[in-house]
Every structure is written in structure tokens, then in C-alpha cells.
């Protein structure tokens, strides 16, 4: 029975990973409709907040100062992770946006070391070198690295913010034994409030018809609310390494979705650069050389 639950959870996570991948071209569609980055964030987090509140409303009475404080702190990182990812998508392609975002996985061990002095091993160093090489290759063209743009830079900041969120959320939940669902809800609430503030300051809401709300509903219902619930469920009964490797496929589905949905044209640089980034993720998670080349070092 336990094995069936693990398989079911991981299959659900594969579905969520596909949805997350499709979120990149759908975000691009929202941008092309005239939505600003902050407005897209409002649509995402308001929808997710309403759904998660409806599901877990009985838990809200358990909120205390400690979980509120640290939930808001990690929620700020979550907001800026999504904000810079969305802002990056405005200026770069969904494929590059998806691949560069995945760099957050190789950054996590270094942030753990920076804040909590947890040792970084040689595989983490190798993974960063490989993955960052892939990121630079994504921006390479015949004239050199002129292919890099402000969207790639914003997405790189996104990867750092996401890594900070992962590190902070993991540390606080383990230290204080927070209820995962309640902790996620506070993260989402904090992100929602910041999204509204940023929208009022930076965006002008476009004139739209009701049908044009579908990208925001997709991002709110499926990418955020459903995605967080499934990920939380999977983390409880499956191994973190397996979860990370499944989630790493998000960028692959971002490419497939971008080609099929918005007709993005792939270049050899994107293919090879993306492959290097995925390779870096695999190295940091599986440490494939542990029992071979580096055994005597």
C-alpha cells in the first residue's frame, strides 16, 4: 500500500511538473495580452489564496506569532522568486526562462553553507560549474554573448530568490515543526499582499474581456494552489532526491510547451545549454561520481 501511495504521489507530481512547465508559455501569453508582471502575480496569488483558504480554513485558527513571522519572511522570498521569473518572461523566451529558473536547485547547497555552515561537497561545485556554463551558452550567438538580455538577468535573480525560499522554508519548518499546509498558506498570503502593492505601484490594469482571465486562472488554480498541495503531499511520502529530479523536468516541459503553444523556435544553443543545466541538477542530486572517479580523493 505504501508503495502504491508513493507511486501515486510521484505520478501526481509529474502532472504538476508538466503544468509548471506549461506555465512559462502561458505566462508569455498573459504578457502579450497586456498584463504587467505584478498583475499576473495578483491573479496567481489571489486565486491560490482563495482556494487554499477554502480547503484549509479550519487550520487558520492555529496561526500564531511564530508561524506568522517566519511564514511572512519566506513568503517575501517566494514573492520575489515568482516576480522576477514573471518579469524575466516579459523580456526573454519561455524556454530560457524555464532553464535559468532551474539553477535554484544548484544554488541551495551554497546558501545552506552561507547561512547554516552546512558543508558543500565537490559535487555541488561541479554542478554549479556545469549548470552556469549552460546558462551562459543559452545566451551565446555568433557575435558572442550578445544574446543575453535583461530578462535572463531577472530570471537569474529569480533562481537565487527561489533558492533562498527553499532554504528558509526548510530551516524554519524543521526548527519549529510548522504545519506544512498552514505555513504554505501564510507564504501565499504574504505573496498576495506584495503582489497587490506592486500592481498598484507599477502596473496599469489592461482593458480585458472575461475570457482573457484564463491565463491568470490557470496560473492561480493549477500552477500555484494545486501545485503546492501536490508538492507538499509528495514531500511527505517520497524521497526529496526523487522529488527534485521530477521537478527538474519542469524546464523540459517549458520548452515543449513553448514550441507547441506559442511556436517558439529552438536554437542549438538553447538545446545544449538546457542539457548542461539539467546535467548540473542531476549531479547535485545524485552525485554520480561518488563511488568511481572521486573515491580516492
The number of domains is 1
Radius of gyration: 19 Å
Report the span from N to C terminus: 42 Å
Amount of beta strand: under 5%
Number of strands: 0
Low-confidence stretches: 289-297
Helix content: over 70%
* N-to-C series of helices and strands: HHHHHHHHHHHH
Structural class: mainly alpha
Descriptive notes:
- There is one protein chain.
- The chain is mainly α.
- Helix content is 77%, strand content 0%.
- The longest helix is centred in the first third of the chain and has 31 residues, at 2-32.
- It is globular, with a radius of gyration of 19 Å.
- The protein starts with a helix and ends in an 11-residue tail after the last helix.
List keywords for this structure.
single chain, 297 residues, mainly alpha, 77% helix, 0% strand, globular, disordered C terminus
Short description:
With 297 residues, the chain is mainly alpha-helical. The chain has twelve helices and no strands.
Describe how the helices and strands are arranged.
Elements: H1 2-32, H2 37-56, H3 65-91, H4 94-101, H5 104-116, H6 122-138, H7 150-176, H8 180-202, H9 214-237, H10 240-247, H11 250-262, H12 268-286
Helix pairs in contact: 1-4, 1-9, 1-10, 1-11, 2-3, 2-8, 2-9, 3-7, 3-8, 4-7, 4-11, 4-12, 5-6, 5-7, 6-12
Amino acid at each position: 500500500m505504501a508503495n502504491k501511495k508513493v507511486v501515486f504521489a510521484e505520478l501526481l507530481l509529474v502532472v504538476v511538473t508538466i503544468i509548471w512547465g506549461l506555465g512559462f508559455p502561458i505566462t508569455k501569453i498573459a504578457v502579450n495580452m497586456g498584463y504587467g508582471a505584478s498583475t499576473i502575480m495578483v491573479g496567481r496569488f489571489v486565486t491560490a489564496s482563495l482556494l487554499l483558504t477554502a480547503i484549509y480554513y479550519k487550520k487558520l485558527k492555529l496561526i500564531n506569532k511564530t508561524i506568522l513571522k517566519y511564514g511572512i519572511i519566506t513568503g517575501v522570498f517566494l514573492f520575489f522568486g515568482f516576480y522576477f521569473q514573471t518579469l524575466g518572461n516579459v523580456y526573454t523566451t519561455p524556454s530560457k526562462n524555464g532553464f535559468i529558473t532551474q539553477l535554484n536547485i544548484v544554488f541551495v547547497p551554497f546558501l545552506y553553507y552561507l547561512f547554516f555552515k552546512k558543508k558543500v561537497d565537490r559535487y555541488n561545485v561541479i554542478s554549479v560549474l556545469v549548470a552556469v556554463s549552460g546558462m551562459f551558452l543559452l545566451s551565446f550567438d555568433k557575435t558572442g554573448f550578445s544574446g543575453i538580455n535583461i530578462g535572463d538577468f531577472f530570471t537569474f535573480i529569480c533562481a537565487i530568490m527561489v533558492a533562498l525560499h527553499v532554504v528558509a522554508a526548510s530551516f524554519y519548518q524543521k526548527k519549529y515543526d510548522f504545519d506544512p499546509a498552514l505555513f504554505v498558506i501564510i507564504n501565499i498570503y504574504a505573496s498576495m499582499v506584495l503582489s497587490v502593492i506592486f500592481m498598484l505601484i507599477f502596473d496599469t490594469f489592461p482593458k480585458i474581456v472575461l475570457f482573457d482571465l484564463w491565463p491568470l486562472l490557470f496560473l492561480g488554480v493549477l500552477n500555484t494552489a494545486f501545485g503546492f498541495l501536490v508538492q507538499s503531499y509528495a514531500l511527505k511520502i517520497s524521497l526529496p532526491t526523487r522529488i527534485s529530479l521530477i521537478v527538474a523536468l519542469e524546464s523540459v516541459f517549458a520548452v515543449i510547451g513553448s514550441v507547441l503553444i506559442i511556436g517558439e523556435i529552438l536554437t542549438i544553443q538553447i538545446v545544449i545549454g538546457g542539457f548542461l543545466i539539467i546535467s548540473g541538477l542531476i549531479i547535485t542530486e545524485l552525485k554520480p561520481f561518488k563511488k568511481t572517479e572521486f573515491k580516492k580523493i
